[in-house]
Amino acid sequence: MLGWLAACTPPLLSLIYLVWQERNLRNWQRATRVTTAASPVAHLPTVAVIVPFRNEADHLPLLLQDLLSQDYPTDRYEVILVDDHSEDGALAGAGPLPANVRVLRLADHPEVLTGKAYKKAALQLGISATTAEVIVTTDADCRCPPGWLATIGGRFSDGADVVLGPVMIAPATDFCSAFQALDLLAYQLFTAATVAAGTPALANGANFAFRRATFRAVGGYAGVDHLPSGDDVLLLHKISAHGGWSVEAVTDRQALATTRPVPGWRALWRQRLRWAGKASHYGSAALNQAQALAFATSLGILGGLIVGIWQPAVALGALLAWGIKAGIDRRLLGAVCTRYGQETLLRWYPAAQLLYPFYLVAVGSAALLGFRSSWKGRRA
């Protein structure tokens, strides 16, 4: 009896996972049917693009070039670069800065840094230095197409208070970077799906926008300002919990920000462990349930394979569960890859699916056990 129970548990978990992912796919498809119409210039909000950076000399000039090439009225947006104690002369290659670009240095404002949340302090400094209606955040290693700001700004013209933009890894030239790209694309689908379902759960600071008035109304980062990460997800959860604000996800290609992959598996482990370390502070039931189900499904597969060494029926159940999970994951990733013209990434999918349960269980277990990682020389 116990043997059959053990054999049936992994497939049952995968079937629950299948139903959940089918619902996410339907909501994602709803989100993609919403497009951004061009707004008259007079209706576009004033925007401040805030870029916190630390030791990004190789990337910041390229991002700045993109930001200065936006199809957005130059008198309606500014760029605020916030230097978080860089040591590499990050702005040396940027050349003379135009009038709508400002540089602030976190070291000159120690009053905004109350703990080890350096990025939040940098963002807070940038937000406090502008009177723009809308704040857009991105990372220094990102690239943005010319229509990026106009697409995001158009959603605010239509009445949005928060806009969640898509983020993609590029370039993806080997298995490690392709694994990251597929993983992040799955996050983009879930982000838009939860917004369409009315339960916004995820945000990415590389492409995150909100009204300055909304930020002030919820108290900014107060309450999560002691945590080194979470300037995006935790702020979104605060806004959602407050209620009364319109959150939208934009899935248009012209709103897509691309970010570089981290260099290698060790760096990926540290990054994902840092992300997982804030999970206990999430204020979204949808996100907590998603994480629990994904972890349980992968753990059921791996546990079934281990038990299956002695009980072959359990191993067969685990393989069936893996097949169910692989099938629905492929369907979802196919949809989002097609949306963003990244179909070539799917050639890496079989290998990524083989690795994923091990990766997810390892990162989740390490986070639950209290392991922490560092970022740019700082302990998370």
From TrEMBL:
Pfam families associated with the record: Glycos_transf_2
Domain Glycosyltransferase 2-like: 49-170
Highest classification ranks of the organism: Bacteria, Pseudomonadati, Bacteroidota, Saprospiria, Saprospirales
Transmembrane segments: 354-371
Keywords: Membrane, Transmembrane, Transmembrane helix
Record-linked InterPro entries: Glyco_trans_2-like, Nucleotide-diphossugar_trans
Protein name (Swiss-Prot/TrEMBL): Glycosyltransferase 2-like domain-containing protein
